[in-house]
Amino acid sequence: MTSQSRLGPRLAAALDARWEHLLVRVCGRRGWRPTPVVFNSYARSAGVEGGGWARVLCRVLMLPRSAEGGSHARDGLSRGWRRYFTAPVAGVEVIVRIGADGPHERVHRVRTAAGGYLDLRLEADLPLGQHDVVVEAPGGAMARGVVHVVDPDVARGLVSDIDDTAMITLLPKPLRAFWNTFVMQEVERRPVPGMAKFLRSQAADTGLMVYLSTGAWNYAPVIEAFLKRHHFPPGALLMTDWGPSAQRFFRSGTEHKRTQLRRLTHEFPEIRWRLVGDDGQHDPETYSSFARAYPDRVETVAIRTLTPVEHLVTGAPQTREEAEGRVQVPGSVRVLRGGDGNALLVEDLGL
Questions:
Q1: Res 281: pLDDT
Q2: Is 16 exposed, middle or buried (0-12, 13-18, 19+ CB in 10 A)?
Q3: Cβ(336)–Cβ(287) below 8 Å
Q4: pLDDT digits (tens, 9 = 90+) for 227-277
Q5: Distance between the two ends of the chain, CA-based, in angstroms?
Q6: Mean pLDDT over all residues of the chain?
Q7: Is the distance from CB of 253 to CB of 241 less than 8 angstroms?
Q8: E strands, the chain, where?
Q9: Pfam family example for this protein (predicted)?
């Protein structure tokens, strides 16, 4: 991309940052203050290859005092549109306590990036298991999240898509996407039948569970509440930002998934991955490309196959032959297909 072609995205990103700055000032006059929202993530214990670390995922927003402690983010009851009208706080220093209130606590002072985001790998020395991460913003507002320290002796990991894999959304159709995102209450969302059971079976002998979505971070707390309510296995949540960047007007969801998969591969070189998605969008091609690039790092690709009606609704009709041709992986990689989680579980068991 030439410098001239990048001018538009850079201008859009600058205007977006200016708009967010004005929102922060207006919210400050109303008595709101910077408030962190911490998302579940993962960590690695110290070993022979070097020191331990934790990936801290957080966003700092201007919120009223009544919404502190995560209630605004995790009530799971408000209409979806409210979550996209936020005032993120960029460039503010926050205190991050990894392993908070425990004997292995490490304290870091860091600054939020554009959009109020924190996505940092910080030094930590945590034993295996789950540990609290507390983020405190200026003014005293704080929030708590969890990091799961990966057991290096468990050499399998699980990555799952969310939209139309765990949760029925049919997002590609514009009208349905608008309704699901901005109108529908979170408690009305429906899980894909049997998918929680299938993912629990796949996660039982894995060291790391990751939900990888092209959805916006604004909606991450809703996703966490949905997964918990429907008994999906707990895991880290990796989402993206829909706003403009210096390179493009809208960020690429497909590139987000590819980047995160590569990062997980480099962070956990001993893990072989089970990848779960659906054929409504680009999961078959994304997972196939990853499996061909890292054939010894992928164990299974499991694809939920949408029905012909669902494909028609999403605007991506395809024949059975076309669907099967979209998954092209090395022979060492097992491929599972099924219309829902129950079918995938039966396929996995060879019944």
A1: 80
A2: middle
A3: no
A4: 999 999 999 999 987 554 444 434 567 899 999 999 999 999 999 999 999
A5: 51
A6: 83
A7: no
A8: 33-39, 41-44, 53-63, 93-98, 106-111, 117-123, 129-136, 142-150, 156-160, 208-216, 236-240, 272-278, 298-304, 334-338
A9: APP1_cat
Instruction: Report pLDDT for 133.
Output: 97
From 276, 286, 273, 254, select the one nearest 338 (Cα to Cα).
Answer: 276
Torsion sign, CA atoms 20, 21, 22, 27: positive
**pLDDT given for residue 38 in this prediction:** 94
**DSSP letter, residue 272:** E
Least confident segment among 9-18, 26-35, 341-350: 9-18
| pLDDT tier at 325, thresholds 50, 70, 90 | confident
Ranking 138-147, 191-200, 323-332 by mean pLDDT, the lowest is 323-332
Gap between the Cα atoms of 160 and 193, Å rounded: 15
Residue 64 Cα to chain centre, angstroms: 26
Q: Which residues, in sequence order, are bridge partners of residue 113?
A: none
Domains of the chain, with CATH numbers?
7-150 (2.60.40.10), 156-349 (3.40.50.1000)
The pTM assigned to this predicted structure is 0.85
- For tokens 């001993």, what's the residue? 270
Helices 283-293 and 253-267: angle between axes, nearest 10 degrees? 30
SS3 of residue 5 by DSSP: coil
Q: Rounded distance, CA 295 to CA 313, Å?
A: 34
Q: DSSP labels for 15-72?
A: HHHHHHHHHHHHHHHTT-EEEEEEE-EEEE--BTTB--EEEEEEEEEEE-GGGGGGHH
Of residues 203, 228, 302, the one with CA closest to residue 74 = 228
Measured from the Cβ of residue 293, the count of other Cβ atoms closer than 10 Å reads 13
Tally of CB atoms within 10 A around 325:
11
CA distance 238 to 41: 8
